[in-house]
Amino acid sequence: MKEPLSSRWYWSLLLAIASMLGLMLIVVMIVDAFADHAPEPASQTAWKVQLRGVDDALKRNDLASAEMLWSKAYAAALKSRHWEGMVAVGDAYRRLGAHGGFRETAAAKARETYLAALFRARNEASVEGLLQAARGFAELGDAAVVQRCLAVAQSVAAQTRDPRAEERVRAFAERWSASAGDWSAGHHSEVSTDHRTRREGTIR
Prior knowledge:
The protein is mostly helical. The protein has helices at 5-34, 46-59, 63-80, 83-100, 103-124, 127-139, 143-160, 163-179, 183-186. 75% of the residues lie in helices and 0% in strands.
């Protein structure tokens, strides 16, 4: 039985976008490594508008629109050169994958975005960003990467000499050690990633 034309078109579109975005991630991470200027303020939050569109499209079950809007959010998050957008687009793509029936593909893409967030958070010495990346990897079951995130977060917290940062890392590590096996079921809200409600400027 032949696959419907609309379905074949959608999956071809999905594959093309995934390939293009993978190349974009590599290029922008290289640019991040050598850039020394701050991005424009507007570019730091442009991805939020697109992600709201993604969620609205998912509510309408319009997967094609959600995918296209997500690709714009992804591009904007890359351009922002900040960790927050990368975490948010990773979370959003997992939601898209759950709706569209491509959870494994979505998880693989989310890993890439969380990894980019990890590098950016480390460069910014952001404990918050490192814990957000750790949360994402924890929900994907990537225990080894979670441990790496926590090790970096502990080092950054010690360098900042901020007792609150050290306590946050310690609390996260304890929760992870106590319930790593079922982290994805009940710990998403422990470290909030809601791009609609996060206060501007609360980055670290």
